[in-house]
Amino acid sequence: MIKRILFLASLLLVVSCNTAKPVVQTTKPKPKTNETANKPKVIRKPHIRVEPENPPVMAQKQEPIIVKQEVLEATTRVKVTKEIVLAYINKFKEVAKSNMTQYGIPSSIILAQGILESGAGTGPLSIEGNNHFGIKCHKEWNGKTIKHDDDSAQECFRKYDQPMESYKDHALFLTSRPWYAGLFKLNKDDYKGWAKGLRSAGYATDPKYPEKLIGIIERYQLGQYDAEVLGHNYTSMASINLVASNAAEYQVAQGDTLYSISKKFNLTIEELKRKNNMSDNAISIGQNLRVQ
Asked: pLDDT (tens digit, 9 = 90+) per residue, 206-259?
């Protein structure tokens, strides 16, 4: 009995010893992981301001471009630029020279009348009727016609198929009427005599018609085409005006008018009259006028 008790006591002792030993873990624990370790590292680049090679320039306020115009008034009243007039001259100078050779009318007068009467090709008569010289129908005309307001409302004017027909008819019109016969006795390059003679013979009713023609001829150097036909040397009005513009006074010559003198010295008629204490437009040959 005692032996049995001792056996049981020994057995209990062994069992209690076994349970007191620490438990050994046989699997390796998972290492702690940093959650952010697997995230891609963002590298922030420093902000560098890049200046453009050509920095923008603030737009400046542009001044309006002023195109100088002149008024041409005969059968129509139009405003044209110098470029329009020069283009017209370039287009019709050869036919004007040809008519001068054939009919004896100065090419300068032909071109000046064409520019003035047609508005350098921009007036309604020239556009709609190819009429470049403002020639009315008259009783002998059997061709096409066009109506236009002139001295009276809706007057009858000649109409042509081509501008060249108008240039030829202008030459025939002047050579076939006896009241223009005196013009053909003038020197071939006397454009001033022709301008005044056309007005006196009744071609136009405008009292300033001669001044307008002379002004156009001298501004655009149309006398050079007369010189080409006649085989003469030509001195440009620009050279003449350069010498004249340096003088304080100008002596009135034959054929001069206040209008033509004012154009030579880049003055208005009123300025010229004011400089010389003039109350009207009357001038005389040999008179000295202040122009500075």
From this structure: 999 999 999 999 999 999 999 999 999 887 765 555 444 456 788 788 778 888
249, 244, 252: which is closest to 286 by C-alpha? 252
76 vs 72: CA distance, rounded Å: 8
SS3 content of the chain, % helix, strand, coil (to 5): 45, 10, 45
**Residue range 82-235, CATH number:** 1.10.530.10
| Nearest in space to 133 (alpha carbons), one of 148, 106, 115 | 115
Residue 24 in 3-state DSSP? coil
In this structure, are residues 114 and 92 in contact, taking their beta carbons and an 8 Å threshold?
Answer: yes
Q: Strand pairing partners for 148? A: 155
Burial class (CB in 10 A: 0-12, 13-18, 19+), 178: exposed
CATH 3.90.226.10 fits 247-290, yes or no: no
Euclidean distance between CA atoms 98 and 103, whole angstroms: 8
Stated as kind and residue range, the H or E segment containing 78 is strand 77-81
Kindly report the pTM of this predicted structure.
Answer: 0.63
Angle between helices 107-118 and 82-103 (to 10 degrees): 140
Taking residue 280's Cβ as centre, other Cβ atoms within 10 Å add up to 7
CA 81 to CA 59: how far, in whole Å?
30
